[in-house]
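RDD family protein
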Amino acid sequence: MTQIPTTPYPPAPYAPRQADTAGVLGGRLLAYLVDLAIVGLLWGVFVVVLLVLGFLTFGLAWMLIAPLFPVVAVLYSGLTVSGPNRGTVGMRMAGVELRTLDGGTVPFVVAAVHAIFFYVSVSFLTPFIVLFGLLRSDRRLLHDLLAGVIAVRRR
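Tokens:
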């Protein structure tokens, strides 16, 4: 006879220890500032290229300047978080990495969606996203829950 589980959902195979998430929120704040500067620099380089191209295309390339910042930010986050280091440059400096709930590397699409959720939540809920993490024992923020990832200390 098969036994029916008592909980509706089985526990996630990867359950980080309390020490794995200690200090993650402070590290993520530092990482955000570093990554914002890097994205700003990358965006600035692309803006210069588009300004020059704008003269060659009679101003058509200048229309790409406004949507360029979010595209650069999402691509930067998606490529770096889904890479072998599991984090952006700022996250690596702060000693933080993102993982899936089973402990694996975050796929590019999930990392990009996580970045979109992050930038949308920062735009509307800035002080509350940190408060959300303070109330949870695993220090996951709202956009982490929505994307199904967890931030842990690098080993």
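The two ends are 43 Å apart (CA to CA).
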